[in-house]
């Protein structure tokens, strides 16, 4: 659950200070294939792609994960790749099934939160005036109210909600930071000449916002989308760990909840609680790597770490 | 002063919003929390006085008396008097007493850890950004990994390593049961000893984010003309790094500090659960597990108000550090 918010804010402020590239990725870097030459992006996409594949087809390949066996709390073996739980369930099978649950939450929240933040941030930033003041106030208030306690509060009243309901609740509490970033970017884009030209041509407001301005914000929106996914997976894990997760899907957080409740720590069943957390961290790293390359796209100074612009290191040693 | 007035007004609105959300949530939810709660209270063996019932109805709604507006006014009145209702978990203790006992633990633990991890992360980020392209760059993937690890999972792993396997550090609780709570060395010593693992968890899992943010800002700032000027003047690299580059690069991190505080608090809530640390997060879990709605609502409110207060402090500090914010207002 670490760090998403603060990385989001720290890097969001600095992206906000940097001018948007004229077209998404057109600037100094060839599109598509050129971007894929980036090691970070490739590694990130590789990791996330692997997990996505597992989540997509994995559950069809493993046998019934609820099946109780006689082999109780066995360490990893050829038969059970990641050992068994206290009731003899196969941990590997659970991990594969949980991957799907966690990724669904991440994806749904990512989409919903991004749509919300685009509506609030871009529309507010473009229209300005009273509408903007009102929308910024709302997003700033949502931003300072800590989200996990609020989500805990709501889910506890619902008493056994499905995974989609939980995704919905997480989205409602997590769109504000992106809305703020998008508003700042919109403010910088809307003063461009081509926007003035489009308005002078008599284009409708919604067309100016969604056809003229939005494409220029795509790198930023993509980066916020990825953040929202990390945030959602971490929040859902925390929520499930407290026993408040969705009742219809197994997720990584639910696995950790069962492991903790079955005293997996004290009996030393590391194979039960290490894999789910490691999966969360790995997906988080993969998504962060993807985001770093978005950041470098937006802010070219961050690029080419191997070649300092000035031979600073040498001079300091002299 | 305009800046100050605007900030104060904003936080007043935020406090009002938090209180109103807290008021509305139980009223929007299906079912009657009051009836469920009263049933449990009676099972717990206590005769519930009419007064206590009225207080619960004011806090949670579904009382049937009065419209929504009247309920709202009554609710605000109760809050002003510090009356959060009666907890069913710790019946018949009042919620405010429980909160008073739990809050200091969290405030000290999270407060110290956050400052520590911020200082550590920003310093490391400064150096890593300054020496971009050197071997220090290897810290970046490590920081990325640490930032993506859930707090409570790291807590589980640390408990497993230091507690169950090596038996070096205590696993649960905030202090030794033999000691009396108060200002005596035995208590403070054992409290510090028990806080070690939770503190390591929080610092380790939050330091990565600060490091990455600061590094990126540092790299951006190093391209500025005033850094070049400073170099041309022949200033010592150390001075350029700290007084010229880092001083400007740290500004967004401080702005982010305020907002991420809420996140660190969220993370520490779950961490407290792993360590059974006697703070606000553990209290929240108790409330959730027992469906103790008054306690739950009060914990949410207290967490939110604390975070808002800290945010206000950081905002005021920010105005001191970056004079431009004051002028912009």
TrEMBL record, chain A:
Q: What is its main location?
A: membrane
Kindly give the membrane topology term recorded for this protein.
Multi-pass membrane protein
- Tell me the GO molecular function terms: dipeptide transmembrane transporter activity
**What domain of life?**
Bacteria
Choose one Gene Ontology CC annotation of this protein and give it: plasma membrane
Q: Where is the signal peptide?
A: none
Protein keywords = Cell membrane, Membrane, Transmembrane, Transmembrane helix, Transport
Can the keyword Transmembrane helix be found in this entry's annotation?
A: yes
Q: Family membership, please give it.
A: Belongs to the binding-protein-dependent transport system permease family.
| Protein name in the entry | Oligopeptide transport system permease protein OppC
The species this protein was found in: Actinoalloteichus hoggarensis
Its taxonomic placement starts with: Bacteria, Bacillati, Actinomycetota, Actinomycetes, Pseudonocardiales
State which gene encodes it: oppC2
UniProtKB/TrEMBL annotation, chain B:
The entry's localization annotation reads: Cell membrane; Membrane
Q: Transmembrane stretches, by residue range?
A: 9-29, 102-127, 139-163, 183-212, 249-275, 295-321
- One Pfam entry for this protein is BPD_transp_1
Give the record's membrane topology: Multi-pass membrane protein
Keywords for the protein's UniProt record, in alphabetical order = Membrane, Transmembrane, Transmembrane helix, Transport
* Gene Ontology biological process terms from the UniProt entry: transmembrane transport
- Top-level taxon of origin: Bacteria
Q: Which PROSITE patterns match?
A: ABC_TM1
**InterPro entries from the xrefs?**
MetI-like, MetI-like_sf
Gene Ontology cellular component? plasma membrane
What family is this?
Belongs to the binding-protein-dependent transport system permease family.
PANTHER family, per the entry: OLIGOPEPTIDE TRANSPORT SYSTEM PERMEASE PROTEIN
What is this protein's name?
Dipeptide transport system permease protein DppB
List the source organism: Actinoalloteichus hoggarensis
